Amino acid sequence: MLHIAFLVAAREYLENLKTKGFWMGIIFFPLIWTLAIKIPVLIEKKGVPTRYFVVTDPSGKWKALIDREVDRRHQREVLDELVSHARRHLKRPADRADWLDHWSTTTALDEFIEKGGQTGFLKELDGLFEAGTAEFVEPRRHFQRTELPSEVTEEPRNTLIDRLRPWLKGDQKLQIQGEPVGLFAAVIIPELVREAPKNSTKASDKNSNEGNIQFWSDNLADPALEQLISETVGRELRSAAYQARGMNQSAVQEIEAIRVPLVSLNPRKAAGEERVGLGDRIRQWIPSAFVYLLWVAVFVSSQMLLTSVIEEKSNRIIEVLLSSVTPEELMTGKLFGIALTGLTMLFLWIASAMGVLYLNTSKGSVAGTAENIPVDLLNLLQTTWLLPAFLGYFILGFLVFATFFLAMGSTCNTLKEAQNMMGIVMPVLIVPLLTIPFIPRDPNGTLARVLSWIPPFTPFVMMNRVTGHPPLIDVVGTLLLLGGFVAFEVWAAARIFRVGVLRTGQPPKWLEMARWLRSGA
Amino acid sequence: MPVDSLALQLQEVTKRYGDFTAVNGLSLSVPPGCIFGFLGPNGAGKTTSIRMILEIIKPTSGSVTVLGSPSALAVRKRIGYLPEEKGLYKKMKAWAIIAYFATLKGIDSRTAKKRAFELLERYGLGAFAEKKSETLSKGMGQKVQLLAALAHDPEFVILDEPFSGLDPVNQEVLEEIVVDLRRRGRTVLFSTHVMSHAERLCDRLSIMAGGRKIFEGTPAEARAMLPPRVRLRTTHSVAPLRQLPGVTTVRQLPDGAWELQLATGTDPQGILQACFDQRLVLSAFSAEAPALHDVFVHLVGDEAREVKLR
Fold it and tell me: How large is the ipTM?
């Protein structure tokens, strides 16, 4: 029995490996991974143009502060880029490792600006770069304050915004170095900025703009400038208030520099190891990643399964097969073959994801803290029961759906008919996908617990809960339920398969299939 | 002959689908080492019977014994089967398909591969061994499928409508294969509705119509079911011949010749003598044993026509 099923599985597996679809899937996935990492970085760097904004400030003291803050943020970015440029292109970066590391502190920015910024930095490393290293290109500024368009007069102030509207709406363009560019925002600062009550950065009296800084922009997606202005002005106001109350300026700064020494600790870990490290954070999201992989694998292989059954049916190969193997052997073989295909795909995906992560981190284009994600991941997978749990839930979850698709496929003669049937199953498949982000936030909440006990969702939801330490009753109970459900499905599918595969003509009604289950004929 | 020495025995096998009875009380005995023809018009229940023999479907009632076993699947390694509707895995190579089916029948994969190439070579498909089956012509594909059914050298070969779709040359090749199987002591059961193949090949045959068996025996026994006939051509009136003893009916055939059906045991020589006595000028006279075709039409003609009209 098993020998024959193995032969069927082997053929199924090898034939799947030969299909274009399989390899497209294999290549497509890491491609997505790479793009998902690269594109935001690219957009950040190249895609977003410098955004120009105007500030009206009758008191005259804010413009300079804002300009200074805009510049400091830009210098911070220049500094970060310089450090990663140096890490990549120094002949012996290890020699300067400490020096490079020290730039990541908050106080380092002042030092950087003091020592001449970009020029000073590069002078320090003069002659240490590898031959042929490309010239460092200063990153584009995110924000740049500019003067009011020449057609617009600042007075009268209360109608200024009406005169600026065509620019803000994009009907009129600014001329910057001969290029037409849009006006991103207009910041109208009143003569006397009103201090908002504590716990509110927005004005409490929403009907009045009196005393408020007005931030006009039709781009609501990018809050960075709005925050920058609010923080800058806020800091200055606080500083003035301290002074007004006769407090020592430098003492205030010292006090403000106090940081809470907070460490995240996990009560479940052994004494001395409670500190929450990167590995722990990865462990929080990796189940979600696995759930997603499981979902994709189920989805892709269910398609393969349908295609394979329908090929045998529509070609009438099924008859020769059934004179050589029992329907149960054929079904078992197919399930094994497809499961193996799915596992191969998963393995290659995970391997390629690791590869992509590794390549990207070693080049330093992912934030410094993520430097050794692949290593952490491997350690994590080796030392916890995450991998066995994943494999277990993968196989069970796979069986839940594959068995179902196999039975459905056996009753259809064409892919079109099968796709109609898929329509009924799709909503069930979508649910676990939708719950992926919610389960880890409250892994032992009502939603998670209820869904865990619904067999088609069990593998997805329980997989997502594994690191949330679900109660033992949930683990054992749902495993038993899932096992029982799979056993029932295999039994039912074998009965439907036996009748379905030899059937031609219209696909059966649900009621009819229920009859096959009862009679077994 | 005792049951366990028969290649196949069916006893009162019936298959019903709801109200429809596809096979009704079919009993058959196929001795080993013979070629058994399973004849009948379309819709007679041949394919359903074959599926029950192979245990692909279960009979509603009755028993099937194949190679001494009540379960064909238990002896499946000794059975080869070519179904009526032919199909192959499109993306698989010709040799791989043959080898795959051989391994399912218990041949180890290395031997299976070797045998696949040998068979393809022997039957003139050597050049196509590495071709995907979707690139083969229909006839070639059918040949590949036949080879797949034979690759494990089964004792009992069941071929459902093996000749349909083959050109005359390949039909002849297939006949040779079937005869060769018998020469090597194998048992062959094949279904057909083309009588000429059955006439040339069968040691025994069974005729089915409307789900029932209406004949089982040797071709000679089948022919003996029809009375002897003579055929003659004359410009004279044949009226006097109607009066002759032993002549049961006289009818004119569409081509103008006359056919006289004789009572069993009547000597056609006497009819010729009578023609001379009556001074009938004959341009042709022949006395033939009836062909299987005539037996078939005689036995199932009405039924077949009925089926066709339905």
Answer: 0.78
